[in-house]
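step=predict obj=EamA domain-containing protein n=292
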Amino acid sequence: MKKTVGIVYACSAAALWAVSGIAGQILFTKYGISANWLVSTRLVLSGCLLLSIGLKDRARLISPFREKKDFIQLLLFSFLGMFLVQFTYFKTIEQSNASFATIIQYTGPFFVLLYAAIAKRQFPSLKTCFWLLVTLLGVTAVASKGQIEQLATSQSALGWGLASAISLAFYSIQPRKLLQKYGSLPIVGWGMLIGGGLGNVVHPMWKIGSQLNVQVILYLLVVILFGTALAYLIFLTSLRYLSSTLATVLTAVEPLLAAFLSIIVFHDHFTVVELVGFMAVIGSIMCLQKKL
């Protein structure tokens, strides 16, 4: 029963992330909101919301600032992890669409394994290499629609997408010791708030660049409240009942739902080659997750 509850939580978090990506794409294409502004606003407000939840235990909340070494690591996580993973993901959506951005970011474990192989000086097994090859072929199929000589998406979108996958790998690896020492809420909360500070250097929150109306505010609430703060808390709850590996594998719901919602909301049409590519990436990453 507990495992079932955990599965529901993990899949719900992945579904909220997928919905957030679609909402972000609507803001970009229909209302002229820029990815730069959305990221800076999303991180600051979500960070404030998460940190406010932890105000009852203020000592725990400020504990990462007490040791210089840990504070430096927190800054690295905030800038190169939290900010960069959000910024590159939404820039990919801005340059292409939510389904492409989600599927290419989902190749992040490929770079985690690559880092592990270099750090440990241990070449991956043949089985791991096979799934890595399947992942690359799947992404190529999605990006090119089967026409290798001419990518279906722009080089800019592909570049941002690869950057989002690499930053996701950093996001997954770098803060592990901090999370074990201080817990998830203060590290992720401060990571969002500090990363949002960097985002405001890139694009200040007060320079919206578009008119705010009821529809825009509702979509912003979806991205900030449901797609960031709530999704994160739900995913954390799932870890009470599931191993981190199983919980991460279940996030395969995200690219599937993002593709499905793109068909409904934007009337996207996927070729057979793209669908095979989607399934290849999701299936191979699920197998690779067992190695992480």
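step=describe
DSSP finds 14 helices and no strands in the chain.
step=end
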